Amino acid sequence: MPDRTTHQKQIIQAVLNRYNTAAGLAYSMTRWPDEEERNSRACDAYAESPGQVPLAIEHTLIPSFDLQKKHDAQFMKVIGDLEAELKHSFPFDLSLSIPMFAIQKGQDWGQIKATVKAWLLANTSEIPAGRSKVSIPGAPFEVELNRDDDLPPVFSVARWLDSSLNVPEQVTDSIAGALADKDDQLTRYWQDGSQTLLVLESQDIALVNRGMVYKAFLAAHARVNPRHISQVWLAETYEPDERYLFIYCLLANQEIMDRVNPPNAMFGPRYADHWERTVRKP
After folding, report:
1. Is 163 helix (H, G, I), strand (E, B) or coil?
2. Same domain, yes or no, for 36 and 147?
3. Is residue 80 part of a domain?
C-alpha cells in the first residue's frame, strides 16, 4: 500500500485527470508547494495549462466521526488482518462484524485476534446459515456472523454502527471544518488569480455514500460560505484496496458537474429544489 504522501498525490492526479477530461483541458502538475514551503500554509499541488489560469489544489480527509482515524487503525490491527489471513478458509461466504467502538485501549489486541481466529477455524461446521451473534470465550465483545451459501466462498470483516453515532451530523461538521480551514489556506492563491480546487477524500464506504456526503456538503457550505474555493471534488476510496476510487464533483459549473457525475446523482444548482427539501439548515 502506498504511503500517505504517495496516496495523496495519486488521488490529486486522478481528480485532475477527471477534470481535464470533463473540461477538455490539459492541466499538468508542475509543483508540489507544500513540499517546497515547509514554513507556510502552501497548497498541496499546483497545476498549469497553456492559456489557462493556474490551478491550486488542496486535499483533505473527511472523517465520518470523531477519532475515526484512531478507531480505524485499532480495528485494522485487531480484526482487519483476519480478512487476509482467513480469506479462503471457509467453504462458504462468511463475514464477521464487531461493534463500532468495541476495541478499547488496554485490551490485549494480539490475543483477541488469535482468540477470534482460533474459534472460527475450530467451529466452522457449527456456524449456521444466515446471521447469528456469538460470544466467543476470551473475546471482550460480541461478534455477528453472516454465512451465505449462495455466494462464492470468501471471508470479510466489518463493523456495525453504534446507535448513538449521528454520522450525517458528524460528516457535516467534518466538511464544515475542512471548508473553513482550506478557504483560509487557499486565499493567497485566489488573490493571485489562480483557480482553487479542494479534494475531499472519504475512506469510509461502510457508513457514508455520495448522496450523504453531498447533502452534508451543501449544509456545511451554507454554514461556512467559503469565498476562496472555486471547485470542490469528492474522492471515495477504500484504504486496503487502492483500486477502489470513485470521483465526483460537488462544486463547479453545472456543465462540468454533469460530465463528471452520473445523471442520477442530481448534483449541482440545477437540482437545488430537490436538495432544498432534504438539507438541514445551519
Report:
1. coil
2. no
3. yes
Q: Is residue 108 part of a domain?
A: yes
Q: Write down which residue in 142, 160, 178 finishes a domain.
A: 160
Q: Is residue 235 part of a domain?
A: yes
**pTM score of the predicted model:** 0.68
Copy the grid coordinates of residue 32: 508540489
* Whether the Cβ atoms of residue 183 and residue 229 lie closer than 8 Å to each other: yes
Is 214:267 a contact under the CB 8 Å cutoff? yes
CA distance 166 to 197: 28
Looking at the structure of the chain, the number of domains it has is: 2
- Which backbone phi and psi does 231 adopt, to 5 degrees? -135, 150
Give the confidence band of 113 by pLDDT, cuts at 50, 70, 90: confident
Q: Which helix (H) or strand (E) holds 212?
A: helix 210-224
pLDDT higher than threshold 70 for residue 2: no
In a domain, 281, yes or no: no
> Which pLDDT value is given to residue 70?
46
Average pLDDT of the residues in 177-182: 94
